[in-house]
Design the sequence.
């Protein structure tokens, strides 16, 4: 045993351990190989994987609620869902809604929430039209008190951060205005008004490029100021509570506010639309306030997210499980009919002389040169009740004229048309595998006494299985995602889940639900692939 | 900010240099999106050909993508690259695009030409301005055509939309659109609900069940179509006896192809089609688009479109100007859905209501269909 005489690892010529030096050489080689395929890999990552991941991400993404109504969502944290929210929630909603309307985002949120609760779309549209009246009652009373209140330039020095004021471009200077900052002291004395003014100033700056020095504050600012002044009044501090803002205008206001005519935020919303007093509306906002939601996935399996938790959809709205099941079932039927039709053809092709088989192969490929729509429409002409096939059957006398067969606009139509369209994907892998089976095996079996059938069953067929496997995977996966053909010939019983996905992508714009349905479909395919690997073995699949 | 002021500066300069180059600040090409087919041809002949003749060197590109316009516009908007300048969509889609912030809000009086007598555009279009972003163009209707050679009908001809539910007197297959809109309304009207109560009834559970129960009576004898070309083909092949589709499709089936089919105008549902301008266009392209839209939606141009296709102009002032079909030479006025003889019983697509109930009703309807 020569190894036994050496201690320590085997060394290479340069004195390093051989194992490490080998690994190093291999790593360099692998890296070079990776560099060679890098362009393709990056291309696939960027153009294929990334969009898919992005699309799948939409199935859980739900930032729109918390981005459009940030204060409302926070204020709702402590809400007891059995009763209407407190007035401060309505106050937060008013401010959020006003800003969202200025940014023209409220209708987007309305359409988003309308997927969950009917009526949200028009509620949000209508509220967007009415929200600028909220608080008007206070503006009028402040202005009655002193006309200075409606002067933007009266407000600006009071509420602005001194640094921001100093940074304002001078007259005639062409320099953009930086984003408004609120004065800290004003914020300490009048927290609600400060928040409202800041939202006002920033929103008009960002949406229309307006300058707060030229715009009258929103009514909501006056409403907020009223509540701040009332709080100071109620605390009993008197003019002391005004801090550095104890000028005559504020003192007069502080004295006047207890006599103001008031309107609660809730009443203001009720005036716009009484649906704001509907618990279901608030429940929906609350249930979908998280930045991520399982709602789309729940909808995809006929469940729904309600304020009370997860519930089953009402029976007459359950659709998706049925469609998933139907898609799988029909794809299976289509795959099986492709095997039944394709196997003899592939067998024939592989056993004919090359010249003839090439000609026949062209016939198999011919449909690929015709548009999918044309092929599908041709099936309509053939299969409809006044179509060619029914005409022939009636003429032969197999079918009575008044009971013609319904071969299209139902499951039968989808299965026939899709079997035809997908047949080449079954025939080609089978053909290329059968080409490689030496005819001598079958001859040998026969010479050993096997009948034709036994020789086929025991010798030929097992060798052709890899081709069937490859064909099945191709056809089944293609079938599961098909939607044009089922849409055209499927009628009401022959449509697939992909038709609903297409509808939600292009028509209802519910991309979240479409993404969730697509993710489930993808998961189902992967599970089936895994099962296939376990049962048949993916090594047994050959494309030639 | 800098770019914007630069652009303003250059547009200002271009304005100053007007005279020699009247539209120097406008883009030299524009991409219009429409539905293809006879409809797009009518737009090309009535709007873009005359406009291009007036503006030498202008490149007009047509894209036949209106069917997927909503999804495409959203994708473009997310990618930050809007390649379309003007998009032809149905009013419900315009509303959706407006809600999503994907279409620009329009000041109709300022951006569109007044009627020849000076009536402002917003009054001339009237109730057809169903959304702030929508520039109405045509009124079309979803209505019925029936074969007039069916022996089993014993010479009877349907004069009411309820013939579709009357399988005794009018046996045969029907074809209806594979969506709830219009079908639910017709079902309730034929179940005896007055038109003004239809939507209130549909909002209740019992009312909805009533509508579905009515549709149940013909569910299995109906081909549910999703493409506007389906019903004309089914009627022409004798596959269905009566079916709904767009009135323009029926016009060409009857008048151009001479098929034995008649129109049934009873309770036709008006719908609108028009332009939207994508939100976020650069200034020069927006200027071009606005200039074109002003031209293409004036009183004469809208009346001209009706020479090529049987859809009614949305301007009140255009109606008297509608003449004879450009190729067939027949007067077009009697073929307009808005013609008084055809419009005895009609209703307009209830956009507000359907915007709210569409998601819900669609789920119900598709579940009902699939079961």
Sequence:
């Amino acid at each position: 045993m020569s190894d036994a005489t050496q201690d320590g690892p085997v060394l290479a010529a340069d004195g390093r351990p051989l194992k490490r030096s080998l690994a190093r050489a291999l790593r360099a080689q692998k890296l070079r190989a990776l560099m060679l395929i890098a362009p393709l890999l990056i291309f696939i990552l960027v153009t294929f994987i990334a969009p898919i991941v992005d699309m799948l991400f939409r199935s859980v993404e739900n930032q729109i609620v918390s981005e459009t109504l940030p204060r409302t969502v926070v204020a709702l944290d402590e809400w007891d869902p059995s009763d209407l929210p407190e007035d401060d929630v309505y106050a937060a909603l008013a401010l959020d809604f006003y800003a969202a309307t200025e940014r023209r985002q409220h209708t987007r949120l309305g359409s988003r929430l309308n997927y969950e609760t009917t009526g949200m779309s028009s509620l949000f549209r209508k509220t967007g039209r009415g929200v600028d009246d909220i608080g008007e009652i206070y503006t009028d009373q402040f202005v009655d008190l002193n006309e200075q209140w409606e002067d933007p330039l009266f407000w600006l020095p009071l509420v602005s951060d001194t640094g921001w004021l100093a940074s304002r471009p001078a007259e005639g200077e062409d320099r953009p205005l930086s984003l408004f900052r609120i004065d800290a002291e004003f914020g300490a004395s009048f927290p609600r008004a400060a928040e409202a003014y800041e939202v006002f100033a920033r929103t008009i700056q960002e949406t229309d490029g307006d300058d707060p020095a030229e715009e009258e504050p929103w009514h909501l600012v006056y409403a907020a100021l009223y509540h701040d002044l009332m709080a100071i009044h109620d605390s009993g501090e008197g003019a002391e509570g005004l801090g550095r803002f104890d000028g005559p205008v504020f003192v007069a206001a502080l004295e006047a506010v207890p006599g103001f005519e008031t309107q609660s935020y809730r009443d203001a919303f009720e005036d716009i639309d009484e649906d704001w007093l509907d618990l279901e509306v608030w429940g929906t906002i609350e249930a979908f306030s998280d930045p991520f939601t399982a709602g789309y996935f729940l909808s995809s399996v006929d469940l729904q997210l309600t304020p009370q938790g997860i519930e089953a959809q009402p029976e007459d709205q359950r659709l998706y499980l049925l469609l998933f099941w139907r898609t799988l079932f029909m794809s299976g039927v289509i795959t099986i009919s492709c095997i039944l039709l394709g196997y003899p053809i592939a067998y024939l092709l592989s056993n004919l002389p090359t010249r003839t088989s090439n000609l026949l192969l062209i016939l198999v490929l011919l449909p690929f040169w015709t548009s999918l729509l044309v092929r599908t429409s041709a099936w309509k002409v053939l299969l409809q009740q006044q179509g060619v096939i029914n005409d022939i059957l009636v003429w032969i006398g197999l079918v009575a004229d008044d009971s013609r067969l319904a071969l299209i606009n139902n499951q039968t139509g989808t299965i026939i048309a899709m079997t035809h369209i997908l047949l080449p994907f079954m025939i080609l892998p089978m053909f290329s595998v059968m080409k490689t089976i030496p005819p001598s095996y079958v001859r040998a079996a026969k010479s050993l006494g096997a009948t034709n059938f036994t020789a086929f069953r025991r010798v030929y067929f097992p060798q052709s299985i890899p081709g069937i496997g490859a064909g099945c995977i191709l056809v089944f996966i293609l079938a599961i995602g098909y939607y044009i053909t089922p849409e055209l010939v499927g009628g009401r019983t022959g449509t697939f889940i992909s038709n609903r996905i297409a509808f939600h992508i292009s028509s209802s714009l519910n991309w979240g639900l479409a993404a969730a349905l697509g993710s489930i479909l993808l998961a189902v395919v992967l599970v089936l692939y895994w099962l296939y690997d376990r049962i048949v073995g993916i090594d047994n699949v050959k494309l030639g | 900010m800098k770019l914007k002021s630069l652009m303003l500066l250059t547009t200002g300069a271009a304005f100053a240099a007007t005279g020699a180059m009247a539209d120097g600040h406008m883009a030299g090409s524009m991409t219009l999106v429409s539905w293809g087919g006879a409809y797009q041809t009518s737009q090309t002949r009535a709007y873009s050909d005359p406009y291009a003749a007036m503006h030498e060197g202008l490149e007009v590109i047509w894209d036949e993508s209106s069917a997927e316009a909503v999804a495409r516009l959203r994708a473009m908007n997310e990618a930050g690259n809007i390649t379309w300048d003007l998009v032809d969509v149905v009013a419900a889609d315009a509303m959706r695009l407006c809600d999503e912030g994907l279409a620009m809000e329009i000041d109709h009086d300022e951006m569109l030409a007044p009627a020849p007598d000076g009536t402002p555009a917003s009054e001339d279009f009237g109730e057809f301005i169903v959304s702030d972003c929508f520039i109405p163009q045509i009124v079309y209707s979803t209505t019925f055509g029936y074969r007039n050679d069916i022996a089993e009908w014993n010479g009877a001809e349907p004069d009411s939309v309820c013939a579709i539910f009357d399988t005794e007197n009018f046996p045969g297959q029907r074809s209806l659109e594979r969506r709830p809109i219009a079908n639910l309304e017709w079902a309730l009207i034929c179940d005896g609900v007055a038109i003004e109560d239809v939507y209130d009834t549909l909002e209740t559970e019992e009312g909805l069940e009533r509508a579905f129960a009515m549709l149940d009576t013909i569910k299995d004898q109906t081909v549910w179509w999703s493409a506007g070309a389906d019903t004309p083909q089914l009627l022409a092949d004798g596959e269905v006896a009566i079916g709904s589709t767009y009135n323009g499709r029926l016009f060409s089936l009857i008048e151009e192809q001479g098929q034995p089919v008649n129109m049934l105008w009873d309770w036709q549902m008006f719908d609108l089609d028009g332009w939207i301008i994508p939100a976020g266009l650069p200034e020069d392209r927006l200027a071009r688009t606005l200039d074109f839209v002003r031209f293409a939606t004036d009183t004469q141009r809208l009346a001209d479109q009706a020479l090529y296709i049987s859809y009614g102009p949305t301007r009140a002032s255009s109606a008297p100007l509608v003449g004879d079909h450009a190729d067939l030479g027949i007067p077009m006025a009697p073929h307009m859905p808005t013609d008084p003889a055809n419009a005895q019983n009609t209703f307009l697509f209830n956009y507000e209501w359907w915007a709210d109930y569409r998601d819900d009703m669609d789920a119900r309807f598709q579940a009902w269909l699939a079961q």
About this structure: The radius of gyration of chain B is 22 Å. Chain B has 14 helices and ten strands.
